[in-house]
Amino acid sequence: MHKFQKSLKNLILSDDRLNSSLFSKKSIVSIARCILEPLANENVPSMVFHRLKNPEGLEGIIKRLEYSRNIEMYNFLDPDIVIKDDLVELEFILLTSSRYNAVFMWDYSDDVKKEVSQIYFVLNSKNVNQVFELLMENSKQNLSEKFYSFKPERRENELLNSCVANILKNFNEAVSENDFKDRALSFEPKDDCSELKDKIRHTSHEIRNQLSVLDIYSKILEKKFSDDKTSSLIRKSISLIAMELNELKQFENLNLKDMMIEDVIPHSIDMFEEIVKQNNNKIIFVNSTIEGDKRKVMIDEGKFLSVLNNVIKNANQFTQNDEIIVELSKDDSNAKISIQNHGEPIDEETKTKIFKDGFTTRKEGFGIGLSVCKKYLAEQLGSIELTASDEEKTEFLIKLPLIDIV
To answer: What does the alpha-carbon distance between residue 136 and residue 138 come to, in Å, rounded to a whole number?
Structure first.
């Protein structure tokens, strides 16, 4: 084993609070996300150092962090940063912020079967600083002054508590996932939900078959009636349904791109233009941005449209003979999308529960729409809130951080 690699491992292992066990790559990616997501979701000023030879499953969160204004990212595979890359197959994430610091390290080089690894993990420990100092010995940049300017406050720290809770949850889930017959890496996953997973897989397959039929007939309609707009909207709906099916299969499938949000919103408006007429409603898009403002947002277009469609659909279902107004504006930091209707106000009790998973006021509802909206937006560093519901209007406000044009 290379000297630098061995010294890092020995340092981590010297922490008697170390949590260490044998984990699959899937579990390692999941725990890594738990460490990084609080920073991304809150855009907390911080520094992140990483060495990811295979970032599969972490591309989305890394990209979000790189585009966060308050977060400095350093890749220890970058020859402009590292004097000599002597870590072989060791991968790690080291971060520090005013809220917490952590080291998470794993290494496949000692394992015969590469799908599992021993992990080394330390949270809010002096050894985090010592790991940083070892890295700086092999770095072309002296970042010590910046690094030590962060002094994590450990008490009453909701961000840290959230990170720890998520990590513990993933540790517990990984216990059943990594059911080894012996410690010699005889890996055999245990799956207590196989019947449910089979049902999901079979149902998804059948839905996809029907979506294929719909796609074919949408093209026939386009050709027969020369109505390319309607068939295009049908295919857009088909693609959104397919995206939701993909959610059943994988944890991380963000496809973030920098986009002009004013170009994306009309896709949803077009989709509902005819639908809202069934309730004698009208949908209006108001672009209140300043002319020439070319600032973009970093979004997954499919997931963002899924959010917007859900909110507009709700606005249409709970009002009649009304104007549903979708208004876009931008301030110094965010793109803001307001969705308003003028139906019956939401009562106070419902307001407190409206974003909770499983809560619904409708007999045929599942109560997942708005909770999923909140989850999707959080993945894109965005947010949604109910800002008003009274006799004048009901308004939901979506915020997405703007990125500067370089």
So the answer is: 5
> 299-321 burial by CB neighbour count: b if 16+ within 10 A, else e?
bbbbbbbbbbbbbbbbbbebbee
Q: In what order do the strands lie in the sheet with 71-75?
A: 22-24, 116-123, 101-107, 90-97, 46-51, 71-75
Amino acid at 220: I
Cβ pair 177, 24 in contact under 8 A? yes
Give the whole-angstrom CA distance, residue 150 versus residue 98: 5
Tell me if 336 sits within 8 A of 404, measured CB to CB: no
Strands 383-389 and 394-403: antiparallel
User: Rounded to 5 degrees, what are φ and ψ at 89?
Assistant: -105, 10
> How confident is the model over 221-272, as pLDDT tens digits?
777 777 667 777 776 677 767 666 665 554 446 788 899 999 999 999 988 8
- The three-class DSSP label of residue 364 is coil
Name residues whose C-beta falls within 8 Å of residue 388's C-beta, 6 or more positions apart in sequence: 394, 395
Q: Report yes or no: 138 and 82 within 8 Å, Cβ to Cβ.
A: yes
**Residues in a beta bridge with 193:** none
Terminal C-alpha separation, the chain: 43
Say if CB 384 and CB 307 are below 8 A apart. yes
